[in-house]
Amino acid sequence: MLIRPNLKIKSRLERRLSLYGRIRMSNLIQMREPEFAREVAAIERDPLFQTLFYGRGGLPRAILRQRWPGGRLCGSCFGLAENVAGSGAPAPVEEFLARHAGLVSSIQQMGVEAFERYFIHASEPLPLEDIARRTGLDLAEVRAINDLLLEIGAHVAAQPAGREPAPVRSFVCLARVGWEEGLPTFEFFFPHWARGLYQVRYDLLEQWKMKGILSPRDMRRLPGLLRRIEAANMRQNTLFRIVQGLVRLQSDFLVSHRTELQHPISQRQFARTLQLSPSTVSRALGGRSVLLPWGEEAPLLRLAPSRRQVVRAIVAAWLSGGARRETDAILAARLETECGIRVSRRTVTTVRHELGLKTSAVP
Fold first, then answer.
1. What is the predicted pLDDT for the residue at 10?
2. How many domains in the chain?
3. Can you tell me the distance from the alpha carbon of 287 to that of 173, in angstroms, rounded to the nearest whole number?
């Protein structure tokens, strides 16, 4: 007898799973950076993670790191950048590092290349003892530096990049954005961001299982650890795709520092392009900021302006540049031909009034 599946029950189950996935994503996206940094620290301090990350029994590492395109740690945070007049890092980061001046000094003596190779990107599969030998540090210092990188995000409060007291709404400043050779760059202020994603080698995990290197207790704990790693990856990958997408769309503005060259962005259309829900994008934009190439901290929402905000910026620039005698109809036509933005004459009139200027009379 052929048993047909109950399509109504199946559809209801799929909807529930989809809803659960959206709720989980929302919680991950809304998780504050210090809270997420504590989750990263808990994952990386897990003995099972360390076994898989550093290797054992001659087997290659089953967990690697995958760097972000154009991503690196902001060297000025640890005094590793040359010709630094000021670190540019959020003030709480500087204050936290000042309390660990001895370790920062050891990092500076090590140099940026060794620091990134052994502590940030872990490009070589070395245990801590070998890292100590190669860097000339003792094992206690290596462990302390590793702990420092795990703790810095968890201990830094969500404050803006300036030194003034935080306003009512504060932001977590993730990175300094810039451009090099026509591509976006991201100098992250937090090590857990600069390190990128976890890359789990599931094919190598099978070798680990076959060799019997993992204890029965490790085998029982492995699925839970992998779920935590995949959840961390999902959160970071989603946020990075959103930031990277905004930076690419606003390249003209970021390269020129001309406000009128910002492009209007529909959050709904942007979310569709990234194959994300609009609510996910909206939550990601809230409470986070970046440092623009010229040193100004800007909320991510600044990089996703509405069409009205862009029209206002363009009209303001034109009027201040000698176009004050042009009629609203002419300005509306210029917006369409020069900027690809179609608006009515009445919209231009309203914007002109908002800017405190009277409508020009029609000649």
1. 44
2. 2
3. 9
Residue carrying the six token digits 């569709």: 272
Residue 344 CA to residue 337 CA, distance in Å, equals 13
In this structure, the answer to whether residues 248 and 332 fall within a common structural domain is no
CB of 77 within 8 A of CB of 87? yes
Whether 310 and 234 share a structural domain: no
Position 251, amino acid: S
**Could you tell me which of 155, 172, 167 has the C-alpha nearest to residue 243?**
172
Q: How many CB atoms lie within 10 A of CB 259?
A: 16
- Interhelix angle for 139-155 vs 101-110, to 10°? 120
The Cβ of residue 148 has, within 10 Å, a number of other Cβ atoms equal to: 20
pLDDT of residue 84: 41
Tell me which residue has tokens 């300005």: 331
**How high is the mean pLDDT in each 10-residue block of the chain (363 residues)?**
45 50 74 89 94 82 92 79 50 76 87 86 79 90 89 63 48 90 91 92 87 88 94 94 96 89 91 92 92 93 89 82 76 82 84 69 43
Range of the domain at 326: 306-363
Q: Minimal CA–CA distance to 24: which of 230, 270, 285?
A: 230
Backbone conformation region of residue 176, classed left if phi is above 0, alpha if psi is from -120 to 50, else beta: beta
Helix (H) or strand (E) holding 185: strand 183-188
Same domain, 210 and 315: no
